[in-house]
Task: structure prediction
Amino acid sequence: MYIDIPDSCFWLIPVFFFLYAETHFRIPGLFSRYYKKEPEIIADVPFRLDPGQPLPVLILIKDTHLFPVTLLNISATLYRGDFKYEILNDCPEKLFVNQPVWHELYSTPLPEDTEGHVRLDVLITFEINGKVKTVRNDNYALTSHSPFEINIDPHPLPKKQKWFLGDLHYHSIYSNDQVEFGAPLDVTKQIAGTMGIDFFAVTDHSYDLDDLPDDYLQNDPLLSKWYDMLESVAALNEGDRSFVIIPGEELSAGNDKNQNVHFLLLNNREFFPGSGDSAEKWFRTRPEWQIRKVLSKLDAAALAVAAHPETEPPLLQKLLINRGKWEDRDYMAEGLHGVQVWNGIKNHFLDHGLKKWVSLLLQGKRLSLLAGNDAHGNFNRFRQLGTPFLTMRENKNDVFATVRTGVYIEKDFSLNSLVEAIKNGRTIVTDGPFAELSIKNKNGIESKIGDCFTENSGLVQFTALSTPSFGFIKSIGLYAGDLSRKQEIKVFCLTPGPECYQYSEEKVLPSLPQSGYVRLTVVSENKSGTYHCFTNPVYIKQEQAIEDRH
Ligand SMILES: [Zn+2]
Ligand SMILES: [Zn+2]
Result:
């Protein structure tokens, strides 16, 4: 049995994104190694748990309207050293499931004193066409089915008060097409909460959000998915002062060369259509909107962010769907607030994203430094189609909240205060440690991250924090950029003593550039890896320089 598809989908083949893998997409006459006459059955759990939290176990079953099943049993076993514990055993009384997406989120208490590295196996027993089958962790044909690895962290994520941590690039259940699908918003919120995460932005593709809810091959003139997403986000945010979802879309828009690039439009009421790289129609790859035009039309409350702007698209995507990357002139567009230059994979960020952001700072462009993972569900591991119809890929990249944006908010935590703080540049990005800096003038007035300091000397105060999960603090580096010289220098790089998880100091900066910035980098390390935090700058524009401009 095929899912009926038009010819146009042939050219979808090279266009693979990163959600839970949809394996039922086939092209008549082409063999698929992972195709099964079963629904996709997936278990997922967070890769890390904040202290004292129950473990959420998500079961997601897709396409039972095509392959109905009767659920018989769902169980989960936790392995800690030589011990094993059954933490879940649910018999859903022969539950017949026959809908496009079915899910259940179990909240399972852990045995007392569970901490550190544990493994978990989830077994799902069901009946299909009179046969009883048991699935371990997922029923994909070509994945490992190996146990989930979870860090039951005895320490919360390192941060100071009034800082909030989140993921600014995430695909949810509103993404659903030939190759991928994500998790529901309420589930994401609950799982994120147990991970110590305070917010996420929901950024499904513009070309998915404009589809009919039950048919991803047809557009919906009423935009029901878009309005449904806005309503669901509003309902989940209502009255909650501890967690915020930022509604949004990942718009496929035209760059300066009129190639399709990705653009996160957050907290904007109006939907912008963008299907240039959707592969929905043959040879229709022209973007509907250009970056500059979009920026001139956004709500005052909206937040505009370049999505993974330095990621070079693969050749086939360049050729077939007119994909490009953000060009220098695009970054200069009026109204752009931030750059999500850290998109999951750290090496790419260090080699390309960070360098680009620094070069923009040195050109005087103040764009908030932001991070996200582009996860599609994926709370513990990434399971995705590899070579179409032949392989599946599985790894730990692109997992929700692996890299995080930290935001400093002085007022109450809310959607508005969060968006405002990001626009004001009160951000850091991290995959582990925490960093903060400020500069005080002689009268004791403090300029924080994102502020502008206006004198020629000051007292820089900085803090670095880590925990055993991210290792001891290895180095703290302060960098100063000078706009007139177009140069960034390392002011100092200090190594705290051994076994340091907390470091604070103040140092006098005797001569600051006329116009520039200072920013901080913290590196920590343990047996499992090296972790980084980068702050957005405190900008510097001395009064003299401000006057000269007038
Ligand atoms: Zn993208
Ligand atoms: Zn994305």
